[in-house]
Amino acid sequence: MSKALERPVPQPDADDGPFWAAAAQGRIVVSQCRQCWRCWVRPTPGCPSCGQSDIARIDATGAGSLYTWVVVNRAMDDSFADDVPYTIVVVDMDEGARVQARLTDSSLALTAGLRMTVTPYLSGEWHLLGARVRREA
Fold first, then answer.
1. Would you say 93 and 129 are in contact if contact means Cβ atoms under 8 Å apart?
2. Domain map of the chain by residue range?
3. Does the reported pTM lie above 0.70?
4. How much is the average pLDDT of 87-106?
5. Which among 18, 41, 56, 86 is most buried, taking Cβ atoms within 10 Å?
6. Across 34-112, where does the E strand assignment appear?
């Protein structure tokens, strides 16, 4: 690609603004329903499980287990064409939320259940979620 294309930047709204602000600070914040105690990532105004609006925001540890993954071989946006192939993983966080992240170590042989660590990282002006194999102490 001869000229770097400008990548799209998300426009946070009232619901997910705190999520992106926490990511900029290196934290992952999950929503937790105070009625049914379910957790999820990317805030919404109500619990996707029971519909209640009494929601707490809690800091996640970033630890979880690999649920599934996909290797992207064709960029959906030309500004990401130089990145392919890359892997998107879905991680079941220990807090109970399920999150999508970009695998930051492409040399891995992935298997379901593999312990992962999810952390925010900076890509241009945008904080994204990245995942790597968890090194248990």
1. no
2. 17-133
3. yes
4. 93
5. 41
6. 39-40, 55-59, 63-72, 86-93, 98-103
